[in-house]
Write a structure and sequence with these properties.
Number of strands: 4
Number of helices: 10
Radius of gyration: 16 Å
Distance between the termini: 37 Å
Structural class: alpha/beta
Strand content: 5-15%
Order of helices and strands: HHEHHHHHEEEHHH
Helix content: 55-70%
C-alpha cells in the first residue's frame, strides 16, 4: 500500500473511532491492539459499510477474549474430526488474531448474498470472508447477532464445514457460548 493508501486507512480508523464514540463508546474501548488492528483488511462498500464491519469486529474481538466464548472452538471439529481449537493451537494464534487476520470483502455480487438470512460467507479454510449487504442492517438492529456471524465465519476459516451442522445451529452455538 502506498503512502496515500496508508493515509486513507488511518483516516478510516480515526473516522471509525469517532463513529464509535457516537455510539457511546470511547476511544479506550477500541480494544484491538495496534499490531492486531494493523492486520485488519476490510474492503466492504463505503465508509458506512466498512464502519459497520469494523464495529462488529470490535464486539466479536471482545467476545472472543472471554474463556466461555473460546470454548466454541472445542465444540466444533473439522472434516477429519479434529476440534477447531487444535487448528488454532497448530497456527499458534488466538481466535482474536484469526478474526483480525481475515480479509473482509464486499460480497454483494456473491449469489448466496441474495438470500436475506445470509450475512457473510466463506469457504472452509479460506481467509477471505465475503460480507453481504444485509450485514449492515443486522449490525444496527442486532449487534450481538452480527458479531456472532463474524465468529461463525472464523469457525469456517479454521475448517468447519456446514450441513451438518446447519448454519443456524452454528450461529446458535456461538450465541450460546459468546453471549447474545
Amino acid at each position: 500500500m502506498g503512502r496515500s493508501g496508508k493515509g486513507v486507512a488511518r483516516a478510516a480508523v480515526l473516522g471509525a473511532l469517532w463513529w464509535l464514540a457516537g455510539d457511546g463508546l470511547e476511544a479506550r474501548d477500541f480494544t484491538l491492539p495496534g499490531p492486531v488492528h494493523d492486520m485488519l483488511r476490510i474492503t466492504v462498500g463505503g465508509p458506512w459499510e466498512s464502519g459497520a464491519v469494523h464495529h462488529a469486529l470490535l464486539g466479536a474481538h471482545r467476545r472472543l477474549g472471554r474463556a466461555e466464548c473460546q470454548r466454541v472452538f472445542s465444540d466444533f471439529a473439522d472434516p477429519a474430526g479434529r476440534p477447531l481449537q487444535r487448528r488454532l493451537d497448530e497456527l499458534r494464534r488466538t481466535a482474536q488474531e484469526v478474526l483480525a487476520g481475515v480479509s473482509y470483502r464486499d460480497g454483494s455480487r456473491r449469489p448466496l448474498c441474495a438470500r436475506p438470512a445470509v450475512l457473510a460467507l466463506t469457504v472452509p479454510g479460506s481467509w477471505v470472508v465475503w460480507v453481504c449487504p444485509q450485514f449492515v442492517d443486522k449490525r444496527f438492529k442486532d449487534p450481538s447477532y452480527a458479531e456472532a456471524a463474524l465468529i461463525h465465519e472464523v469457525l469456517h476459516v479454521l475448517g468447519l464445514g456446514e450441513n451438518p451442522p446447519t448454519s443456524a445451529a452454528i450461529t446458535h452455538r456461538v450465541m450460546a457460548r459468546c453471549g447474545g
